[in-house]
From TrEMBL:
Source species of the chain: Fagus sylvatica (Beechnut)
Swiss-Prot/TrEMBL keywords: Glycoprotein, Ion channel, Ion transport, Ligand-gated ion channel, Membrane, Receptor, Transmembrane, Transmembrane helix, Transport
Chain residue ranges for the region called Disordered: 460-480
Coiled coil start-end: none
InterPro entries assigned to the protein according to its UniProt record, in alphabetical order: ANF_lig-bd_rcpt, Ionotropic_Glu_rcpt, Iontro_rcpt_C, Peripla_BP_I
Name recorded for this polypeptide: Ionotropic glutamate receptor C-terminal domain-containing protein
Residue ranges of domain Ionotropic glutamate receptor C-terminal in the record: 181-400
Domain of life assignment: Eukaryota
Regions crossing the membrane: 241-262
Species classification: Eukaryota, Viridiplantae, Streptophyta, Embryophyta, Tracheophyta
GO molecular function, a single term: ligand-gated monoatomic ion channel activity
Primary residence: membrane
Keyword check for Amino-acid biosynthesis: no
Subcellular location: Membrane
Length: 480
């Protein structure tokens, strides 16, 4: 301002000179009124310029009305008072009200789909938030968001240990609130410095938290200590590759945990095409069974199905089941349905599932009561379900291929059955039964297998109506 006044006096006017008088009223409202009255009466000023707070501007404007002195203010009310021109005719505002600023904050909250926020503001000597809380609350309600907690801080000048006071308040806030979105509506730079230093100590500045600070703070960041800037930066940004991996992993977890009911399915090994028949056989034969020790399955096997606890083997991961089956440490495994489908899809040729399936309430995400993200998860799952994406993903990722299926298709069974019947029809059953156990390679046996009595049968020779009219086969015939 001094440079501007000097430039005006030297270059723009020879008849009018500008003289600047500075007064620092401090934080006391009475001193603001006293300083303005002193400038008018003693310095004979013709214009009063300044006031960064609306409360100060209103008081000085009242003094200017009495003396007919214009007051140019750098502050504006959050909500424009009614009949403002009539109440302060000599007041000139150089700033817009805070409604546009609050609308921008609300748009940011909507863009990130935050449902709850924490409003932070430092009380001033006037004991007012200038109506910004009311504006913010109304703007957030348009997008179904709300202020979960108002984090009120006293003036930093009134605290003997500002850092300790802020730390205690942050610990209390961390315990009683769920939101980690902080909106600083108004605060002095000293209070912001204490706020971010203590917030970083308790873990509220990082990738799981978001802070929105006003322009009054960001405009003076260049002048603050580097330690303050460091406390505001939080954690280092992860690489783009890490972000991609995390997104893919979360998507896979969402598919596996949200698209299927939590059904307990018993998975049994295929031993020479003769799987374990039922649970009673497992219990009566004192066989070992495997299950996930960290889930409800283990207690269900003991308390409901009646398995001996000593016969239940805890399996750490789904990939370990194959090793337990191969070294015969377990005869069967009990898995929740999604994990069973993943296992069968991967090892479809060596394992099969039993028909017995025990159904329960289903998988679900558990959130703390009133969590702002619970509804978002429900909406996302419903969208995937209604669009048919979950069903498509199940068919694509969790359905065993035809080649890997341990259950023979009707066509495959009929091919071999018709071939065997053709052989019987040629009258060679007695010779074949006598020679089949022999594994020696002899000319007679070789001539017999190559004789014209053995005829090849292709699938095209099988009538379609025979296959369609026949029930699905339960046993696969083998000539070996």
């Amino acid at each position: 301002m001094e440079i501007a006044a000097e430039n005006f006096n030297n270059n723009h006017s020879k008849t009018h000179k500008l003289f600047l008088y500075f007064q620092d009223p401090g934080q006391d409202p009475l001193q603001v009124v006293s300083a303005a009255d002193e400038l008018i009466k003693e310095k004979k000023v013709q214009v009063i310029l300044g006031m960064n707070k609306w409360e100060e501007a209103a008081l000085v404007a009242a003094v200017g009305n009495k003396a007919n002195v214009p007051v140019i203010s750098f502050a504006a009310p959050a909500i424009t008072p009614p009949m403002m021109q009539q109440r302060w005719p000599f007041l000139i505002q150089m700033a817009n009200n805070d409604s546009a600023h609050i609308e921008c904050i609300a748009d940011i909250v909507r863009a990130y789909n935050w449902k709850r926020v924490i409003a932070v503001y430092e009380d001033d000597a006037y004991g007012s938030d200038s109506g910004m809380l009311s504006l913010l609350s109304g703007a957030l309600q348009k997008f179904d968001s709300e202020i979960e907690y108002c984090f009120l801080l006293p003036p930093v000048s009134s605290l003997s240990n500002a850092g300790g006071f802020v730390l205690d308040k942050l610990l209390e806030l961390q315990k009683n609130t769920q939101s980690r979105v902080f909106i600083v509506l108004q605060s002095s730079m000293p209070m912001v410095s204490h706020l971010f230093r203590e917030a970083k100590k308790v873990g509220l500045v990082g990738r799981e938290s978001a802070w929105i600070i006003p322009e009054s703070v960001t405009s003076v960041l260049d002048s603050v200590n580097n330690s303050v800037i460091s406390s505001m930066e939080g954690e280092k940004v992860y690489s783009n590759l890490t972000r991609v991996v995390v997104v893919v992993w979360l998507f896979v977890v969402l598919i596996l945990t949200s698209s299927y009911t939590a059904s307990l399915s018993s998975m049994l090994t295929v031993l020479r095409l003769q799987p374990v028949e039922d649970i009673e056989w497992l219990k009566s034969s004192n066989s070992k069974v495997g299950c996930d020790g960290d889930s409800f399955v283990m207690s269900y096997l003991q308390n409901v199905l009646g398995f001996n606890p000593s016969n239940i083997i805890k399996v750490t991961t789904e990939s370990d089941y194959k090793g337990h089956f191969e070294n015969k440490s377990i005869a069967a495994a009990f898995l929740e349905l999604p994990y069973e489908k993943v296992f069968i899809n991967k090892y479809c040729k060596g394992y099969t599932t039993s028909a017995a399936t025990y159904r329960f309430g289903g998988f679900g995400f558990v959130f703390q009561k009133g969590s702002p993200i619970a509804r978002d998860f429900s909406e996302a799952i419903l969208r995937l379900s209604e669009a048919g994406i979950l069903e498509d993903l199940e068919q694509k990722c969790l359905t065993p291929s035809h080649q890997g299926s341990s259950t023979p298709s009707p066509t495959s069974v009929w091919n071999k059955a018709v071939g065997l019947a053709k052989y019987f029809y040629n009258g060679e059953i007695s010779t074949a039964l006598e020679r089949a156990p022999s594994l020696s390679h002899t000319p007679d046996l070789e001539d017999h297998w190559s004789s014209s009595r053995w005829e090849e049968v292709s699938t095209s020779d099988i009538p379609d109506n025979i296959i369609q009219a026949s029930p699905p086969a339960e046993i696969e015939l083998s000539s070996s």
